[in-house]
Fold each of these.
Amino acid sequence: MKDKLRVGVIGAGRWAGMAHIPGWKRSPLVDLAVICDIDRDKAEARAKEFNVPGVETDYQKVLSSGDIDVVDIVTSGDNHEPLTFAALEAGKHVLVEKPVCHDYKDVWRAHALATSKKLKTKVGLTFRYAPAMQYMYDLIQDGFVGQPYIFNGWEQNSQWIDPAGPSRFARQDTGNAPIKVGSLEGYGAPTIDISLWVVRSRLTSVVGMLKNFVPKRKNPDGNWVRTNVDDGDIYIGEYANGAICSMQSSYVTVGNYPGIEARVYGSKGALICRLVEEFGECQVLRSATPEAVEFVPVEVPASYFPVGYAKGESWRSLFYANLVHNFAKEITDGGEANQGNFAQSARVQEIINAVERSHRERRWVDLPLDPGVGD
Amino acid sequence: MVLCDLDRDLAAARAQQFGIPEVETDYQRLLSRSDIDVIDIVTRGNDRGENHQELTFAALEAGKHVLCEKPVCHDYRDIQRAHEVAASKDLKTKVGLTFRYAPAIMYMQALIAEGFIGEPYIFNGFEQNYQWIDPDTPMDKRPHRERSEDTEVKGHDPRPEAIQVLSLEGYGAPIIDIGLMSVGSGLERVVGTLKNMLPYRRRTNLDTERERINVDDADIFIGECANGTLFSVQSAYVTVGNYPGIEARVYGSKGALVCRLVEEFGECQTLHGARPDAVEFVRMPVPDRFFPPGVGAGEPWPSLFYGNLVHNFMQELHGGDGVNQGNFAQSARVQEVINAVALSHRQRRWVELPLGS
């Protein structure tokens, strides 16, 4: 066996430069071999920035290379699905940014393919890898909250609160077409993941509503277009173990990034984890018990932080460093462990699909959506 | 001021405690006195837990302004009727929607009125506490010495759809009130779920065994307002956290405000605000004008908030104009939402408001 996992990154954009590549560079288990982008200048600039030896413009060449173990898909386009299937077919372990596919059934197909080839998968469900969130999960596993009663989740930001604000791309005019899923998929996914993970039960029913608060937006050409996209949404759900939840996502609500909050109330205690950059801190975990009902800060042990962590590090690199190192460790260890994989992403995507249906049909929707699909 | 209670000893002790000259045991005698302007109904109820409705109507019929603890009535239509009786007699009313009178909530409302949040997008409300988190805490916490035969048995039907409304009415009401006030619009539709997290509990302190009591000890509903605002409210009395456990978050096109009324480390209220150009929430100190007369540092929240409530009612009575916040009309709106959420739970569907239209 080789000493280190050899990794190829497909997509050299902003998020790759901010989160993925610095993460791979930090993991002692990894050798970052190649950066691939259809834009050669972009790939070369990133390779130079992070001292990566290989540059490629054709992803097929990365996939067919015999000395690449892991492919990281961080492209900005709507092409995660074909790239994912191609990488799995080529026998690579795959990390992919969300959404893997828009239909949860396709994510299950990808999971089945990976399983059949004994490949591990991981999805960019970044926020479960925040040190405070990982520690919260362990506290829950250890029984801190007892039987869970209520989960409340938020992912919010104010990225597009200004209708005339600058946009990097032209938006399509939606006309009077029914509302499109936007925030729920883009921002809801990580907290949905956390909600399933920490409550340790599956959802049996959801009911929710998608809203379009900013009806028109200004494109880079100065024209205003109708944008009937979900820019704020709420749903409530019931779990098989009797707990209930509320989940909210929005990109037109004032607050700083990453705008995640997860609250768990149970029979023996409560935990609140906030991942919101405020005054130099990007994560806060607080707890209370029936005997001490005023919430107090909980210190996150040093073992939950990635190699090279320094106080004040941006959440963008901090959380992703944990994510990629965790993936590298899962692959290297060779055991069954594979948190936040395609199966989990499929469960998350199924809920997104169920909430969308609940909105369109204005009713509670029961899960599983198709009893024949999934686990 | 006169203090009235069925239990003369209790009335006499309170009167002595607060230097009140007169004591009464028969509320009818109180209502028939012409030198009483305002009646404050703060009974905890008979064995069925209900007499606010009866006392309220009697006081209004006797021509008194009325302050009443919630719920005034369990059916919003009865509260609406009480409001109409009051209006027909030019009487003002007030309901114990305590938390809208917290200085921080009053300041929050003033900021919203000045346009701080712009157009409202989302309201999230919570009222939570942990007073029944222990299943050995009896459902009825009163210190009975003997069993009463005519006590209504709460939560006897174990079917999920037959769950008895409890937390939603007892704890949900004040935060629904604050939510409606904050977004400046009524709810058009709601959907929610009422849960019984602790199915087995002692019924009274005289019981040694736990029994199945199917009551709502935790609930969440979401809704959509006429002006498009998304709305969510959660209440529970089995969730860890200190009293009064209120949180109101409102997000709009120009800013966001988060008000917490939770006693922690000597503080019972905080208000934080953020704007698109300053997205980190900062503490917003509540100006002095939102505090009641005679407030002292570290005053406990029950007297602080209620000091504002009754003083506001007195100002409204003296003011002579039409202003009457938190009155029976508002309480009827809140109760209608509670009734709609209960219906939504029982029929497992979105329920449109107004009910019965």
Amino acid sequence: MAALENLLLGFAVALTPINLLWCLVGVILGTVVGVLPGLGPAATIAMLLPLTLKMDHTTAIIALAGIFYGARYGGSTTSILLNIPGESSSVVTCLDGYQLARQGRAGAALGISAIASFIAGTVGILGLMLIAPPLARFALRFAPPEYFGLMVLGLAMVVFLAGKSMIKALLAMLVGLWIATIGTDLFTAESRFTFGQVKLLGGVDFIAATVGIFAIAEVLVNLESRGGAELFKISKGLRNLLPTLQDLRDCRFAFLNGSLVGFFVGALPGAGATVASFLSYGIEKAFSRHPEKFGTGVIEGVAAPEGANNADASGALVPLLTLGIPGGNTTAILLGGLILWGYKPGPLLIQEHPELFWGLVASMYIGNVLLLILNIPLVPLFAQILRLPYYVLYPLILGISVVGVYSVNNSLFDVWMMGLFGLLGYLMRKLGFPAAALILGMVLGDGLERALRQSLMMSQGDIAILINRPISGILLLITVGLLCLPAIRKVRSWRISAVEQEG
Amino acid sequence: MKTNKGNILAGACLAAFGLYVIFVASKLPYVSEVEPGPGFFPLWLGIGLMSCASYLVLSSFSAFTKESPSDSLTWPAAGRAVVAWCGLMLAIALFDWIGFSASFVILTVFLIVALDRRPLLPSIGVAIGLAVGFHLLFGLALNVSLPAGRWGL
């Protein structure tokens, strides 16, 4: 009952004209970003974060979250029409989606993708609404040692799943933690690693770093090659974009499978939408009456992964909004945004700022309806975005990045930092170091160090406090187990196949 | 299985960097009166960095890790990206002299002509169009300040 009352409050917030407008802008932008291969929601949110500083914070999170889940809708378009996934989470959609397009059923594939996304997205929001508040209430019992255990577990999950090589993910995370130490020490006011630069006393600007690592690095990676691909034609008319009744009947289990797998995998830090989409595809195939047909153009092969990668977006918001632990790139940037706006993401966020949490939940319901309405008739229009020449797109991204970073502090130093982080992000990608681990280290570094030092203050220097307390002890035990799991050959091969899919 | 030069180079750089972190952290107080000092956390970070980086180098030498060809840096392809990055950094350096709009036009023309091999005149048109668009949207409509050069451009 309380949840219903809170949801009504959320709708009152989300249905104000300004929030409705920004929800629409967010989901359209998200769809466009999802359609464009090479520009992801993480880079887009990083680029636009500076522009949200002057906005109402609830409006800003509604718009940014719209980009996050809207991109999942758009990602399927290129997978089906071009056999090029717009997002890594849509890789598996290529298998059957592209085959359906070759058989002249591109419209039905795009239609079922939008319907599966809508159903799973709605189930995911229900999960977020029902699970997040009790989880936040439970987390209120946490003291510094428990927070330390939780953050270490979050980092370990990302290290476990973020890259092909765990050692590289660990190194990226350590560099991220080191970047977080740059500046003035919060406890003693001593400056650390500032290289004599007064501008580094306040630490590395989060926006400059994320825009560099995601947006600039993405442009650099894409500039390596030239060329385009031919689009399949989509038949005009709404009827051609609607799946048949038989298609919908065939996808009943796929809708449920995608929704549940997507939500629960999304709630695990580090797992991500790609793992969710592959897992739901695997389950769909395993339980199918005609598994041999998968990969030849089966409609369930589109519905399950597309549903999963949408439900994942809601699942990923659970640890972010209840524990302050992001699970991947985009949620790490959203966490950075919440901190920049002055919030303390964690168990008290829902209690202290109900309008923010419930406004976001309600806006996601509205956003999903908007996406369904937009995606079915407007798919041919969104597909035209692919015709935007890259020689216009890349300068545009670079320009927005520069303006965004500069506008935060009117500082050219930050723009230089963005450039340097751009090169770092590019090299990391080329050498197989996962950027998610670095960003997570950067975001959680301050909190992790604070929790550790406060724990040691509580115990007068006795490190055993971290394992003697039951919750932190269990969390650290799980962390150790997780990091030791790859020693088991079967787990190692599963982990590598999972992250290969993610990459 | 093969030895990956990129891994060895990255590992060596990170190990050296870990040493630097240890060196700087060791000059900071490890403990203060009531709690761990500002050097405590970075010192252990440095040790972790150096240990993991050394492991990466050693495992790459002994070919413990399976690497696909795509994992290693392919220099011919990277060349275009590095040239684009240099162009961006040069444009950032120019912001201080000729301002955002003029630098952005130069950067865009450079990217289109040098990297995408498009004709010069249309490229200038695209660059000026984008710069004007930025000025109208950010400078005038959103009142966002753009980097201004010494000559007020």
